[in-house]
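Reviewers of the previous submission asked for a worked example of the structure-prediction workflow described in the proposal, so we include one complete record here. The input consisted solely of the amino acid sequence. No template or homolog information was supplied to the procedure at any stage.
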Amino acid sequence: MTKHARRNTCVTRTILAAATLFLAACSVNPATGERNFTAFMSPEDELQIGRDQHPKIIQQFGGVYGDPKITAYVDRVGQNLAQVSELPELDFTFTVLNDDIVNAFALPGGFVYISRGLLGLANTEAELAGVLGHEIGHVTGRHSAQRHSQSVLAGIGTAGVSILSSVFLGTSAVGDAVGQGAGVYLQGFSREHEFEADTLGVRYLSRTGYETGAMASFLSSLEAFSALEAKVSGLPDPASRYNIMSTHPRTGDRVNAAARAANVKPVANPKTGSREYLAAIDGVIFGDSEDEGFVRGRRFIHEPANFMFEVPQGFALFNGAQQVAARGPDESLILFSGGKISHRGSMESYLTRVWAKNTSLADVETIDINGMKAATGSTRIRNRTGSFDARLVAIRHDPDNIYRFMFLTRPAQTAALSDELRRTTFSFRQLTSADRARYSAWRIEMRVVRRNDTVARLSRNMPMQGPKDEWFRVLNGMNPGQEPVPGQVVKVVVE
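From that input alone, the workflow returned the following structure tokens.
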């Protein structure tokens, strides 16, 4: 037998063994009653992965939101839902992340996360329960285990022998899964899994007596919120970070279809928990927190790090998890990053030998930026969209911290934007006492509507950019043109 023939025989045997394994390793899903292929991740593996990735998630998403009242409230709602699920014995952990992006997700093993940004958008306890129920559904449906096992099986034709040995001998499969990092488990699920999670979530809402339409109502608020963000920024994707819209690609019609598929009995006198919810989130931070830095119009202010800068007119400024970005005309882009960097040499040496060590820089020079030593240089780069001129600026803010600007412009626009981007460079400065007194975090505050109150009156002092009346209606789940009624409790944003 030739070497090629032996290889084909081996692959064939591997595939047959894999097929046998597939049939033997289909387990009955406790939530759906269906048989699912989960051979490469057991419930014990899921718990191990969740425990391993939990602290990494907290670090990646801004830490835990430090309000014990809100933490206890979310945990109570989540635990009540978990107790009526098909896995009541699983020790679920519910965490509120200090992240302004509207976000929710779950890790294997019962670790469920929501952001304070999501708390600010929801309007009832039932809506919160709908989000938590959906994420619990991903856990009880064992969607991560299915996705992982199917992805492993898909590679069996090229790596079948090693994969099968890992299963039969108990070697690397779990370790590999754990070592992949949290990002693997934050990828979007399939449409089938999203539909199933919605169906399970509706089931849990019904069992706990909530309004089962709460999922759809929250989704409507989320869609309106995203549309308003895009309108205000002039960009189709203003939240350039990981968010619930990218990971849960659902529509109102699909959520309503899932509700029908849940086939639950109508809840008599369903609870919404509007007043309870609004009382719980009264005072929650809205938008950027002090620890993250504030975006205020064209300015970025970071009080703990003691600096601020301003981008040119026509640039939309966004505070990301790893960097600050500003998008401008003609695909121009400003990227700002840095912090604690161990480099004791000159700024020129840091620029040329550390930051851009594999890049040939032109026009390298040492400059002074408001009493801080800095260095700058330029180069031309190419990516899949074409050529960009790149101007790099490295600034020593203090002995331990270096901050960096990267200005990207199309070659045809570099000269026209040069002066404005230079002004951004030299706008970088340390904060004064007046700066610290001027800027603070925005918070959500509850107001009881009085007889003569209107949307225009209630929203006129809100600090957000754009149409304040629209922001008010979106945050309160109101339709265009709708007005509040006396006695109603509504949300406003205050500085």
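The longest strand covers residues 386-398. We consider this example representative of the routine output the project will generate in years two and three.
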